Structures are given as structure tokens and as C-alpha cells.
Automatic annotation (TrEMBL):
Example GO biological process: lipid catabolic process
Chain span(s) of sequence motif GXSXG: 64-68
InterPro entries noted in UniProt: Acyl_Trfase/lysoPLipase (IPR016035), PNPLA_dom (IPR002641)
Keyword entries, A-Z: Hydrolase, Lipid degradation, Lipid metabolism
Active site, per annotation: 66 (nucleophile), 188 (proton acceptor)
Organism the protein comes from: Streptomyces ipomoeae 91-03
Pfam families associated with the record: Patatin
Entry superkingdom: Bacteria
Domain PNPLA, residue spans: 32-201
Protein name listed in UniProt: Phospholipase, patatin family
One term of GO molecular function: hydrolase activity
């Protein structure tokens, strides 16, 4: 990786009182920090696809800590951002699980719950890791590992990296055994740093770009697993914020005419995200692959906000033999005019309303791994308020997507197009919101659709806030009854071949729904669904 042309140095001519002095401006140096986060760094790989390949960003230095060293190793051996993202898209979390069975006979003194043997046998080769290529990398890169023997953080260049050292970089105490290398003991450095900002500063960075996936929700749940990772969050976030505070004070001092702690202004760009993926406890391949695609979408939005131009993204790969999904949904309730209706509704006092929806997905794999989870909808809307039985002219359903960007709250969103008896275009915009986190409210929240009917046909981009759209004609509340739900489940069909693939597709769909419901209603047990 090299600096952008815009970062290249130039020579300026400065006019003094008596002479003209040539001054060489030091080229700006840009560092990329691949912070840790367990397998949440799959999200980081999606960001790299956008930053490196679509935005064409170039970095003079790259640093990795904990799980971020996985992506740094792939970067060092010359893989593109898309290749790194695709490596994670091919990964099954279950393929990296290897319990440390021998240690289970001594629970009070066990070395670790798991080993990294399965990663070495399966995951590393699946990523195509070649440590000869890593060691010969020309990239200025730094791998962070904690040297237990010397009780200090150790920063390794690519030429010192090996499979053992990469394993040491992610050897989280109690979960994986520490690594013994050349008579010294090493482990994951997360309790000291999860993003070595100081190393980037020491190497002359003027811009520091960080991909941060450690949770900042500030929650505290009970239990050993929750407490363990909450301690990690406290350590990682605390250390990261301390160095950010130092940089802010440095920049303020320089702006005031002082020298600053670091002697130059330092720009920090952080893309932080709450990734609905547990750091280690997870077995769902689709959830992992969705995390990669979340990184892609988040990075594109992040770049758009900062007016960083992007190349046209590659189209979603077309599967050779896709599975399709079909099901019907029947909801019924009432519709009433809104206060701003102005008499447009045919039934001023309100009227029954029913929806008969045919939901279709042409590519099940995309539906399950795309964070938007979008299906096409056809069918009919029936109400005297709109002139009787009206065919839908189009529409979409988004299943269990994040509510207002919060992955711990979900929505089932509807955008349905139809016309009234005067052929005036209308759109029903609504959602079933799963937000309380209370398992006792799961039935009410998953079966009640609150919707508004607005004038015109709205696209998802211009529909605005689905709970406060403009041009509202009517408001509706509809329910999915128990019998309707049973008919919906009985009528669900997955098409494609062979039959084993259809069965697997049905299991994947069930796992997706189960996992999303877990994200809302079972977080005290495990913060994010295990599948």
C-alpha cells in the first residue's frame, strides 16, 4: 500500500524579509488500524472492500491487534479488500471450533476451553494464508502481541510473523492457550491495546483510520461469559478513549500556537459499529457473512457522508443454482382517516382493512446474508375506504432488520403500492416493531402491524421516516392471527435442487429468524444470537 497522490510531498517557496527560502513539506502519512473484536472483524473485512477497492484509499502503514491481525496478515500477503471480504464470506464459524478436551478433566486448572488447532487446519488454509508471502511483504505493518514472559506489549513486523505468532496474537486467556515461542510465552494483547494508536503516531502518522467493532453499548449482563467480554470492552474502550483524549489535547494545543504532545496535528477517522455477532460464541455462517455485508453497507454510507467518491460496486454474484422462497401472509384490522386526511378517505369513520400478501425471494442466499433482508411482495388490499378490493402494483417486505440502526431492536417493514377507486397512487408504509426486549411481549410485537397510507408511490429512499411520513391519508392497525400464522408456516415453500439443499435452506431460514428474535429477547443469556 502507498500514499495517495494527494498525500505526496511538494516544495513551497516562502518569502522572507530579505530572501526567498525553499521549504520541503513533509508528505502526510496515513495509518490504517485494524482493531480487534473477535470474529466481529468480519465486519472489518467488509469495510476494507470499500475503503481499499471502491474508494481506492491507500495507506502508508497498517497495524493489527487481536482479531484484526487476521485481516492484516491477508493484507500483507497482497490480498485486495474484496478478496479479504470474500475469505470471510467463505468461512464457517463452526469450522474453527476445537474444544480443548484434555483440559476438561481438570476444570479448576484447565489451560483453556478451546484451542486454535481447527483454525490452523481449516480456516487459515481456507483464507489462503501463506506466511512466506507475509514475511516478504513490503508493507510497513505492525502486529501486536503481549509477551507474558517480559510483561510488555511487543510489536512485530511482517518479517517476524509465523503461524505460531498469528495464533499468539489472538490467544485470548481462558478461551485459547497461550503460545510458547522460543522459550517465551505470548497471548492476545487486548488488555493492553486493541488498536495501537501510539505505534501509528510513533511512525509519523498524520491521519489515523480506525475500524472499531468493540461494543460501546455500555451494558452489563450477568454470567461468566458476559462478564469476561464486558471486562474486555472496558479495557479496550478505555485505552482507546485515553489516546483519543491525548490527541484532542495535542490538536487543541497546536491550534492555540503550542507545540502539542506529538508535535503535529493528528487527524483521527473512526468507523465504529455495533456488530450483532458475538466475539467468539457463534456458529451461524449466514450471520458471519451478513456481518461482512454490514461492513460494506456501513463503509459506503460512511464514505458518502464524508464525500469520499466510490467506484461503481461490483454486482452481487449470481448463484449457479439459487434457492427461492415463497410464502403467503394474511393480516386484518382497521383503517381510519388521519387528522390531515382532508376528506380523501372514502370511509370517514374508519373501515375494516385486510391484506393478502404473496411474498417471494428469488435468491435465498442473498436474502439471508444481505442486512436489508428484502423480499418482493404482490397480492391484494381490501377495504371500502379505498374502493373495495385493490390489487397491489408492487411492494417490498424487509424481514427483521435493525430498528433505527440498533441491532438489538428489529422491524418487519412493509412498503406496498396500490391505487384507490379513482386510480390515485397510494403507498402503505408500516412495520411490526420488536423493541421491548421482554419475552412476554414477543407475540404482540411480532404480530401487530402499524401502518400509514400516504399519497403517491414512495421508494424506500424517499419514504422518509416510516413512523412519521408526510402526505398521510390514513392510519391502520393490522394483526397476524394464530391461524393465519399457522397457514403461513404450512404454506412456506423453498424451491430449487437438490432436495438436500432445500432442506438446508429451510434450516437456514429458521436459524435466521431464531437468531434475530434472540437479538431482541434473549440478550441477557448471550448478547447476540449464536446462529
Amino acid at each position: 500500500m502507498k500514499a495517495d497522490a494527494a498525500n505526496a510531498g511538494d516544495t513551497g517557496i516562502v518569502a522572507g524579509d530579505t530572501e526567498i527560502v525553499a521549504e520541503t513539506v513533509r508528505p502526510r502519512k496515513r495509518s490504517l488500524l485494524l482493531a480487534g473484536g473477535g470474529v466481529k472483524v468480519a465486519f472489518q473485512a467488509g469495510v476494507l472492500q470499500v475503503w481499499l477497492d471502491e474508494a481506492g484509499l491507500r495507506f502508508d502503514h497498517a497495524d493489527g491487534a487481536s482479531g484484526g491481525t487476521f485481516n492484516l496478515a491477508m493484507l500483507c500477503q497482497g490480498m485486495s479488500g474484496t478478496e479479504i471480504a470474500d475469505a470471510w464470506r467463505r468461512t464457517s464459524p463452526a469450522s474453527g471450533v476445537s474444544p480443548n478436551w484434555r483440559q476438561f478433566t481438570r476444570p479448576g486448572y484447565l489451560q483453556s476451553l478451546f484451542t486454535l488447532d481447527a483454525y490452523r487446519r481449516t480456516v487459515f488454509p481456507g483464507w489462503g494464508l501463506d506466511f512466506d508471502r507475509v514475511r516478504s511483504s513490503a508493507l510497513e505493518a505492525t502486529f501486536n502481541v503481549y509477551n507474558v514472559t517480559r510483561q510488555r506489549l511487543q510489536v512485530l513486523p511482517p518479517k517476524r510473523m509465523s503461524e505460531d505468532f498469528l495464533a499468539a496474537c489472538v490467544s485470548l486467556p481462558m478461551w485459547f492457550p497461550p503460545m510458547r515461542i522460543d522459550g517465551e510465552t505470548y497471548m492476545d494483547p487486548v488488555y493492553v491495546t486493541d488498536a495501537n494508536v501510539e505505534e501509528a503516531i510513533d511512525r509519523g502518522a498524520d491521519e489515523i483510520w480506525v475500524i472499531w467493532t468493540v461494543s460501546e453499548r455500555g451494558e452489563w449482563h450477568r454470567g461468566f461469559t458476559a462478564a469476561y467480554f464486558q471486562i474486555i470492552e472496558a479495557a479496550a474502550n478505555g485505552a482507546f478513549r485515553r489516546i483519543q483524549d491525548r490527541i484532542e489535547r495535542n490538536n487543541a494545543d497546536i491550534a492555540a500556537g503550542g507545540a502539542g504532545e506529538f508535535g503535529r496535528r493528528i487527524e483521527v477517522n473512526v468507523l465504529a459499529a455495533e456488530v450483532p455477532l458475538h466475539y467468539l460464541v457463534g456458529f451461524g455462517a449466514d450471520r458471519l457473512h451478513e456481518a461482512v455485508n454490514r461492513g460494506v453497507l456501513a463503509a459506503r454510507a460512511w464514505c458518502a457522508e464524508r464525500k469520499i467518491p466510490l467506484a461503481e460496486p461490483a454486482p452481487w454474484p449470481a448463484p449457479a443454482d439459487p434457492l427461492s422462497l415463497r410464502f403467503t401472509e394474511r393480516l386484518s384490522g382497521t383503517v381510519a382517516p388521519s387528522a390531515a386526511d382532508g376528506g380523501a378517505l372514502s370511509a370517514p369513520g374508519g373501515a375494516p382493512l385486510s391484506l393478502g400478501l404473496d411474498v417471494s425471494v428469488d435468491d435465498l442466499d442473498r436474502f439471508l446474508t444481505d442486512p436489508e433482508h428484502t423480499a418482493s411482495v404482490s397480492g391484494r388490499l381490501s377495504s371500502t375506504a379505498f374502493g373495495g378490493d385493490r390489487p397491489l402494483t408492487g411492494g417490498t417486505l424487509q424481514m427483521l432488520v435493525d430498528d433505527d440502526g440498533d441491532p438489538a431492536r428489529k422491524e418487519i417493514r412493509y412498503l406496498l403500492y396500490f391505487t384507490d377507486e379513482r386510480q390515485a397512487p397510494l403507498t402503505l408504509i408500516g412495520s411490526r416493531r420488536l423493541t421491548s426486549g421482554d419475552p412476554l411481549r414477543i407475540w404482540d410485537e411480532t404480530t401487530v402491524l402499524r401502518a400509514r397510507v400516504v399519497r403517491g408511490h414512495r421508494t424506500p429512499a424517499d419514504a422518509g421516516d416510516v413512523r412519521e411520513p408526510d402526505g398521510v391519508v390514513a392510519e391502520a392497525v393490522l394483526r397476524l392471527g394464530p391461524l393465519a400464522l399457522l397457514r403461513q408456516l404450512a404454506g412456506l415453500r423453498i424451491s430449487g435442487s437438490p432436495p438436500v439443499a432445500r432442506a438446508a435452506g429451510l434450516a437456514r431460514l429458521g436459524a435466521m429468524v431464531f437468531g434475530k428474535l434472540w437479538d431482541v429477547y434473549a440478550r441477557p443469556v448471550l448478547t447476540w444470537g449464536p446462529v
